[in-house]
Design goal:
heterotrimer; A mainly alpha; B alpha+beta; C mainly alpha; A: mainly alpha; MetI-like fold; two-stranded antiparallel ribbon; 13 helices; 2 strands; about 5% strand; globular; B: Rossmann fold; six-stranded mixed sheet; five-stranded antiparallel sheet; 9 helices
């Protein structure tokens, strides 16, 4: 079953996905199958998006109600006020995605090269952390990274490597990445949290595409004078690209909108755009501004995703 | 053609391969002459593919060494060896065009003319027009030729073919056999062809090593293997054999040795009888047996089956002791026998081969001809 | 060189696996802690208190129960709807295929905060109050796409000749579907359901937008605790959920393997 979960994380790439359409079945069958699910998505996904768009163009306040005025200026205001958080979100998510790729690829490759039970067991270990609430796990990182009695500091101290902890903190301080030389509360802790949280989303599609890789192709490359490095570069990597594309998307998209990591592991200088939207919506109650920010984030991400997918040449994503 | 002189012998010296649970290849010596078309023939699991993979560098031998000319390549990696393989599954890179596939090896070696040579190699296998296509857009036979071009283009010291025609249908396979032979003589490289198809091996190879259970049973040219098999395994694996139990009854006289087979007196060519052997199998190929008493050794029997195959008629004749011999008679106008007819089967001494009776009668019997 | 490289891979893989599992280990260790203050940050004394009284903090087990109920309902509904869509996409040719694919893909490409806030905007506009129903609706919505992808992969890899063979052997369409198609697609459906449950059970952001004070899910409870003080019971429940999920998946695999052996 773990394999099937992994399988599910990878979009099917083949252009001819519809497996032999059948003509003898009545034509209304597919629509009957689609109707309930698509209706659900239209009512509870598309309609909210339209509502958000409309909300963003309204003016007014909570007490007197809102009127649709077509106030496009709110987008400009939102951008002007919150571009640092927006940019920060994209940068953090980008770094976290690259880190996830670097960390996830070896593990995915390793799992794909195992056999039978070992493979299944490793896959279970990758998926299982999902079931412990990610909030609890992120809080665990708090206690690991904390500078005051944190587990990492204690472990390093016990290994007589305590200087590493201080040294890293000093580097962060020197680079103005952490005001007090602490890892917890610095941008790095936030990026680390994002990397950790979305790592399984990276590993599973990578695993699926590496698992499908025909080992004989690697042998053929070796037979044709490719060194292991060249075999990776010209055969393994290109053939795992579908996994890389879906893995990076499944990591980048949620990471860009996330604010839990920034709240739990960061400080006031690591505020991400999700946090702004959340507080504008739920606390400040400036619905138009929050809606405008939501929409800007969505458009930005969709634009980046589209450009990325075009470049990677993956035709059908689902 | 000039390449023939520069090609060096491949030598396997005491090479063996043990896996955790079994021995795939027992220590063996084998020399493949440079420029020859060499076949490793045997049933599946006989160790032929393991041997091939050791030569390719995809499997490390447990003992022994592999030499090309005087150069020991035992310890070198697959990518360091000037040896290329045509894989059974072709293993074409699906993300590269046909041309890029063929140029792959040359590019890794840093050849500046990789592309030009690849185009040339594609022309050799008559696939120039599809150079820009992806492998998946080609038919099985075309993919096979791409795999061949991809290996040949590197001018390896040894070219390994791992059941390369296994996935093709019969007609295409025949066509490709001729094509392979043509290409081999054109480029003059050493070809080692692994196959379980005895007919294929005999049609194509100069020399065949018949392997069984991790050992080379016999090495020789196709005619020798067929006419003078050294074991019942080889006798049965290459073509059909009628094995008749017999024991030598006297000393040789006049070039023949008297023997008794199931109560009947026969003679065996003295030079074919290994010295000191008493209990023997007399092996006679079906086409060497004749219906009628024309030969010196005669036996009576009952025709139980006759099947007309066009060129010949194939009979099963039951001997008095119950054994059915197969007789293949050319349709050359001679009289035909019918099922239920009593006939005499005969052959002349010198047409047979003689084997030790200690060997299993049914070793190497192929149930299904691939 | 190759030896080093092969082991370099193993080392890198194990390092990543460690990173993935270290927080779970920490959670487990802290579940035996008896902290001084309200926050379970520093290891003080070993204690089994939390394990003996997992519901010992007000609200924690209610929230867990609510999360399990929502997770189960959402995954069942999403699996049902999603499987139908997957079959339509994998088995039929119809107009509007591209639009359908886009509609399935969009929720996966939309950050949770956008989905959550948009749903809230919709609910505010049509006057539906937030709470359990709103949460359930939201969860079904964002789980749906993942189920479709999971099941579709399986449907697409299904050999249509098997169904043809069943029909050839005299099986009617309905019985072919029940006896041949469904068992073959079952692993995909199970994976989709499992994925849907875990996504729903673990969701905080979307839930937070659509929750009301009397619909506190487990992640919301944990979030609240992280602000006010973290009871050790949180660690107990987290650890139990981890162990149960590992046991559940391994158990399911064991059963499947045994069945395969018997067949």
């Amino acid at each position: 079953m773990a394999e099937a979960v992994a399988e599910s994380a990878l979009p099917t790439r083949s252009p001819g996905t519809p497996a032999r359409p059948r003509r003898r079945r009545a034509n209304w069958v597919p629509y009957a199958l689609l109707a309930p699910g698509l209706l659900w998505l239209i009512v509870f996904f598309v309609a909210p998006m339209v509502t958000t768009l409309s909300t963003s163009l309204q003016q007014g306040n909570v007490d007197d109600g809102y009127v649709l005025t077509g106030n496009v200026a709110v987008y400009w205001e939102a951008l002007q006020a919150y571009w640092p958080q927006l940019l920060r979100s994209l940068v953090y998510a980008g770094i976290a995605t690259l880190l996830s790729l670097a960390l996830g690829y070896p593990l995915a490759y390793f799992i794909a090269s195992r056999k039978g039970r070992a493979k299944n067991f490793l896959l279970v270990l990758v998926i299982a952390p999902f079931f412990t609430s990610f909030l609890i796990r992120t809080m665990a990182w708090q206690s690991i990274l904390s500078g005051e009695g944190g587990l990492l500091e204690k472990l390093l101290g016990w290994l007589h490597l305590g200087f590493l902890f201080d040294w890293f903190g000093n580097v962060l301080e020197f680079l103005h990445l952490s005001p007090n030389g602490q890892i917890l509360g610095s941008p790095w802790a936030v990026v680390w949290g994002l990397t950790y949280n979305f790592l399984p989303f990276m590993i599973l599609p990578l695993y699926t595409s590496l698992d499908r890789l025909d080992g004989r192709l690697l042998e053929a490359a070796g037979d044709l004078y490719a060194t292991p490095r060249e075999t990776f570069r010209y055969v393994t990597w290109p053939l795992s690209l579908p996994g890389v594309v879906s893995g990076t998307l499944l990591t980048f998209i949620p990471a860009a909108g996330d604010y839990i990591n920034s709240r739990l592991l960061g400080n006031t200088n690591t505020v991400m755009i999700g946090q702004v939207i959340d507080s504008q919506f739920l606390r400040v109650l400036d619905y138009p501004l929050a809606a405008a920010l939501s929409f800007i984030l969505l458009i930005l991400i969709l634009g980046m995703v589209t450009a990325y997918v075009r470049k990677a040449g993956t035709e059908e994503l689902v | 053609m000039a390449a023939v002189t520069t090609t060096e012998d491949l030598r396997l010296v005491g090479i063996s391969k043990e896996f955790e649970t079994f021995t795939a290849v027992h220590p063996m010596d084998l020399t493949v002459p440079g420029g020859s078309f060499f076949a490793l023939l045997g049933p599946s699991g006989c160790g032929k593919t393991t041997t091939l993979r050791m030569v390719a560098g995809l499997e490390a031998p447990t003992s022994g060494s592999i030499l090309i000319g005087d150069k020991d390549i035992t310890g070198s990696k697959a990518y360091q060896r000037n040896v290329n393989t045509v894989f059974q599954s072709y293993a074409l890179f699906p993300h590269m065009s046909v041309l890029d596939n063929v140029a792959f090896g040359l590019k890794r070696k840093g050849d500046r003319n990789a592309m030009a040579k690849a185009v040339e190699a594609l022309d050799l296998v008559q696939l120039g027009p599809v150079a820009k296509k992806k492998p998946s857009q080609l038919s099985g036979g075309m993919q096979q030729r791409v795999a061949l071009a991809r290996a040949v283009v590197n001018r390896p010291d040894v070219l390994l073919l791992d059941e390369p025609l296994g996935a093709l249908d019969l007609k295409l396979r025949r066509q490709m056999q001729i094509e392979l032979k043509r290409i081999q003589s054109e480029v003059g490289l050493t070809f080692i062809h692994v196959t379980h198809d005895q007919e294929e091996a005999m049609t194509m190879a100069d020399t065949i090593a018949v392997m069984n259970a991790g050992r080379v049973e016999q090495l020789g040219d196709p005619a020798t293997l067929y006419e003078r098999p050294a074991s019942t395994f080889v006798a049965n694996f290459l073509g059909q054999s009628n094995l008749i139990e017999a024991s030598v009854t006297g000393p040789p006289s006049g070039g023949v040795v008297p023997a008794r087979a199931h109560g009947q007196d026969v003679v065996v060519s003295a030079e074919l009888l290994p010295a000191g052997l008493k209990d023997i199998w007399i092996g006679v190929r079906p086409e060497k047996l004749r219906l009628g008493g024309g030969g010196r050794n005669k036996m009576a029997g009952l025709v139980t089956d006759a099947s007309f195959t066009g060129v010949a008629t194939q009979y099963l004749v039951r001997m008095p002791w119950g054994f059915e011999v197969m007789v293949v008679q050319q349709n050359d106008g001679s009289a035909r026998a019918c099922v239920g007819e009593n006939v005499t089967v005969s052959w002349d001494p010198g047409q047979e081969f003689v084997l030790d009776q200690n060997q299993a009668e049914d070793a190497g019997v192929v149930v299904d001809h691939g | 060189m190759s030896w080093i490289r092969r082991h370099l891979l193993t080392v890198a893989a194990m390092a990543t696996l460690t990173i993935l599992l270290v927080p779970n280990l920490v959670v487990a260790i802290y579940s035996f802690n008896k902290p001084d203050g309200r926050f379970n940050y520093e290891l003080k004394r070993f204690s089994l208190d939390a394990w003996l009284h997992p519901c010992g903090t007000p609200g924690i087990c209610d929230s867990l129960g609510l999360s399990l109920r929502i997770g189960l309902t959402a995954s069942v509904v999403a699996t049902f709807l999603g499987t139908m869509i997957a079959f339509a996409l994998g088995r039929h040719r119809f107009r509007g295929r591209a639009t359908t694919n886009l509609l399935i893909f969009m929720p996966m490409a939309t950050p949770e905060v956008v989905m959550g806030s948009s749903l809230l905007a919709l609910f505010l506009n049509i006057g539906l109050s937030t709470g359990k129903l709103a949460i359930l609706i939201a969860h079904i919505m964002f789980c749906l796409s993942f189920v479709v992808v999971a099941v579709k992969a399986r449907v697409a890899s299904l050999d249509p000749r098997l169904e043809e063979a069943a029909a050839d052997l005299g099986s009617r369409p309905v019985s072919t579907f029940v006896r041949v198609t469904l068992p073959l697609v079952a692993p995909g459906i199970a994976a989709g359901a499992l994925l849907a449950f875990s996504l729903s059970f673990d969701d905080y952001i979307i839930t937070n937008f659509n929750a009301s004070p009397n619909s506190v899910t487990f992640p919301m409870y944990v979030w609240g605790a992280s602000q006010r003080g973290t009871p050790v019971q949180i660690n107990v429940i987290g650890t139990v959920m981890f162990l149960v999920s590992v046991a559940f998946v391994l158990g399911a695999q064991l059963v499947a393997a045994r069945r395969a052996k018997r067949a």
